[in-house]
User: Fold these one by one.
Assistant:
Number 1:
Amino acid sequence: MDSAALWKLSYGLYVVGVKKQEGQFGGSVVDAVAQTAAGDRPVLVLSSMTNNLTNTLIKKEEQFMLSVLPANVDPFIVANFGFQSARDVDKWANVPYSLKNGLPVLDCTVAFIHCKVVESKELGTHTLFICEIIDAQNGENIAKPLVYADYQENMKDSAMEAFKQFKETDKPPAKKTEASKQSKETGKSPAEKKAQWRCSMCGYVYDGETPFEELPDDWACPLCGFGKDTFEKVE
């Protein structure tokens, strides 16, 4: 099966914000979201990767916030919430956000939606959460929402480059113009750096010290749990 064919499905891209502990929050990028009922009590469904900490936190707290990403979103925001685990990093410390109803909302959001879980169903690799929409408001960003297919075609490489810079400097990358200037000054290009491998299922980028080819055959992606055969070399 060619998993890239599934990228053609017209999802949006969103960031989940969920309580982790007092004063701290977890979160991740999600795409499988849909409104399934309207009326006085509108219903939304979210499919979340079972192995993610976000999934565990949603099950515990039974509520979360969705920030709708805009088409002009900084690629680092996607990388920050999509390419690393909240088990290891305070993702929200890296981005501008505010609290709405006690949960984090990105400052750049097109809209935010507060959801309460009313039912869930295990689907193997994912959990399907059926949610009542408690609140929904437009954000200040008037850009169009980011579509998953556009991200795959136009933004994924920029997101991966932003994440590489973040891992190297331990701080959010400079704006694109500043990064280009630094590249010219140092004379270094991304091609001169060691090869990296990306999980085609969740987008996680492996950049550990052990060469990817030397990892054991039973090694699995730390985010989604899929094996080595789902990884693609980042050129």
Number 2:
Amino acid sequence: MEASARSDIGLVRAVNEDSFLVTDVLFAVADGLGGHEAGEVASRMAIDLLEEHLPYFRSNPADKLRETFTRINTAIHQRSMSDENCKGMGTTLTALLIQDGTAYIGHVGDSRAYLVRDNVIYQLTEDHSVVGELVRLGLLTKGEAKTHPQRHLLTRAIGTLPEVDIEIVNSKIEPGDRFILCTDGLSEAIEDSGILDVVTSNQTPPQVVDELINLANRNGGHDNVTVIAVFVGAET
């Protein structure tokens, strides 16, 4: 298994509020929200706390991932309530844990986890956003969602409320699987088909990450963009 990650501020934002984590088995992206750099604090807290809990995932990984997300939500919410500079802060959090031939994904917000298998791209996570809900109801197309004025309004985020509904996805891993984790700076700038083209272009994970970020910036760079590419070997 080979992984690579990179975060870029983009061409418009003054601060990069994204954070990411790459270990041997645990990968995550977080996109913070909140003024006065509070978003940067929230995303960094989420990633740091997730990494601290890594030894906790050795048994019952799906349950432990949910419990960890709950603890992270509580910690960030308490910080937002106690620190005036962090009032109202929150973050997305999308984590991929690879263990015993299974991919376990924990997810809150509109960052995404994709799986590319047999030259097909699958979005493994749902967008917890107003436009994401409209797309699921058939009231918007994915293309319309990219330019909708409410596309940045989340229906769920880590830390904004005392409790949060956490999405957990399990998927058996097959040889050659390729996972992409990204913040919405990528998914809003590039169609899924464009991501698929890059991932299947016989490039290494570092090259894939760089090309995806460069494409996002060439398409306007309107947001911070963070990408993690995790390639599973031909044999597992």
